Structures are given as structure tokens and as C-alpha cells.
Amino acid sequence: MIASEDPFTFDEKVKSVKVKVGQLFEDRKLTLLSSQMKQSLLSQVQDDICGLSAKKQNGGKVGRLKFKSFVNCIPLKQHENTYTLTRKHGNNGRLHLQKCKQTLRVRGTKQIPEDAEITTAKLLKRGDDYFLHVNCYRFKKTVSLEKWEKREKLGLETRHEIGIDLGIASQVTCSNGLKVKYNLPIDENIRKYARKVSSTEKGSNNRRKARVKLQRAFAKHRNRKQEVINKLVSCLDLFCTDICYQNDYVAGWQRIWGRTILETSIGGLLGKVKTLPTSREVDRWEATSQRCQKCSEKTKHALSARIFRCGTCGHEEERDVHAAKNICRVGMTEGDEPEVIGDVVHAERVEPAYKTPVDMKTAAMMFEVLKNIPFVKVSLVVEAGS
What we know:
Elements: E1 16-21, E2 24-29, H1 35-57, E3 73-76, E4 83-87, E5 92-97, E6 104-107, E7 117-126, E8 129-137, H2 140-154, E9 161-166, E10 172-174, E11 178-182, H3 188-199, H4 205-239, E12 242-246, H5 250-256, H6 258-264, H7 266-274, E13 279-282, E14 307-309, E15 316-318, H8 319-333, H9 357-370, E16 376-380
Parallel strand pairs: 9-12, 12-13
Antiparallel strand pairs: 1-2, 3-7, 4-5, 5-6, 7-8, 9-10, 10-11, 11-16, 14-15
């Protein structure tokens, strides 16, 4: 495709392609790729070229297109045609690919709900392992009803709003006093394998083996961070009917606290929260850490000051918790309305109440769930006399 004069007019019905071997080209037949796989690969290359063009127009550095000796992703655009996934007993299944006579064993099919509609998929190669990423669709009303049934079993109230403040010392601070810290440092094996890759000869078999080990180490580290983020967001979504967050500029934090942002993946956590249908966004420039929630007057504080002290009314409170409460207040009164699903009615735009018996009950239940998540340290800040 890249060797053709125009990749956007490339014929996807081609039966052979030119492969660069050294300085020469030779024709090789395509025996295993079906017509739909060819169309998907062509669309993927075209989308990548469009993305590089947009990046270049925005001032980014883009190099010339290079030949690839391998493909790590094959899109499968239609279930029961391009591919067929059959579920067996337990966690096993069978995968049949178009133009492939032998079926492949698949593990992990229990992750797909029984009532889900399977659509597109991607066959991925990471290191020496192969993965199948399947896109599924479920009715929003069904998912929402399952959530509310879980809330009823736990004895939760019909309404509980919360504000979350993201930070560096404490990654997540909630308006009900919960402070969540987690940190997954770079594994020493990653550094060791990176040095091994740089010391081996380019194109050698030893370099390929070292790259596979490096990819596995990175995948293990990435999966651990993703597991922590998924469990945090799942806990917030279950216990809270409305989640207010501030759209912080995490990319700017990366330039100052690069290692901390890498080891905590705060940007990934914020992106997950944004996808929740019950989330309410607060503007980035809202002075949530400076405005007093009692008298609404601003008092500037240095980043090193961890206690908020109002210069007008004298109100004092832990800074991150105070900011989270302001985020909750602004989100519930001014933030964007969350998506309404089925018969679920979200909380009205009212001033949220703090430290009520219901609020502390939910905070205690969330504390019990969060403390069991690996790599997570959680604490509960309670004011005296509350």
C-alpha cells in the first residue's frame, strides 16, 4: 500500500503484493487475508495517514513513511462472517477466521455478557502472544437497571453526589473525605530489558527476543495500572449517582511531575470518569481550591499550603477535601447535565449537603471496598464534631 502511488486509490481486491527484500521487490500471494480483512487494513492505513497529516498541520514533527516487515493488528469487521466466536463451557471458546481452516482456542470468553451483541473485533499480536479485542453492545437501560439493583442490595440511598479532586500527593480526593493514593513504579525488569535491547545488534534474533521480553514487561505494568483505575472508577460509579470532576490539564502536569504522572496514570483515570453517563464536568478555570465554600470569597494559597484558611470568615479545612466539595457544589449547580438512561432520574441541581449520616455511611462503605484494591492506600478524613 505504501509503495503504491496513491494509497487512497489502492485496489483492495489485489491478490498479491510487492514485498521489499533488501534493495529489491518481489511479488507474494495473499493466501490467508480475506477480502474484508484487506478492506479493513486499507482503511486503517488511510486513517493513519490522515492522522499524521493532521498532526503535521498542527505543528507536529512527522517523518517519512517507512516499510513495515510485520503487522500487529488485523481488523475483523463483521461477526459470523469475517470471524466467528463460539462460546464453550466455562471460560473457553473457539475462534474461526475467514480463509483459515483451523479453529483457534480462546480463553476469557466469560468477560462477554450473555445478552451482549458482538460486532467488530481486532486480532492483536503483543510480543509472542495473540489477543482478540471484541466490541460488544448492550442496552443502556439493562446496564442501568443492574447498577440500581446492586445499590438496593447494599442498602444505598437513591441519591448520593460526590466531587473528586485529582492531585499529585493524593491521586483522588473525594468530597466525603476519602483520600486515595496509589503508585506503581517502573519495574526494574523494564530497565534491564531496555538496556539489553540497546546493546544487541539491530535485526538479530537476540534483539527480537529482548524486545519481546521488554514488551511483556511493559504490558504487565500497564495492565496493573489499568486494573487499579478500572476498580476505582467502578467503585465511584456504583456508590454515587452523580460524579462531579474538574477538567484538569493533566498534560501540563506531565512536564513538571513526569515520573509521578507516568506511574499513576491520572490522565487515564480522568478519561475513564469522563465516559461515565453520571459524570458532571466543572470548568478547568474554576477556582475550586481558592474560593471559600462558606462565604464564597477567594483567598489565594501557595501549592505548599495544605490547609485552606479563608481570609474573610476564618473557615479552615483540609485543602484537597475543600476543593472536592467546591467541585461538587459547582458541578451540581452549574455543571453539564448527565445523560438520562431509561427511567433513571438524577439528582436535581441543589446545594449538596456534607457530613450527613447518609454521606458518612456511603463513605465508610466505599472505604471498605477501596482498601481491598491492590496497590491502593485509602484514608478517611473526618472533621472533629462531625
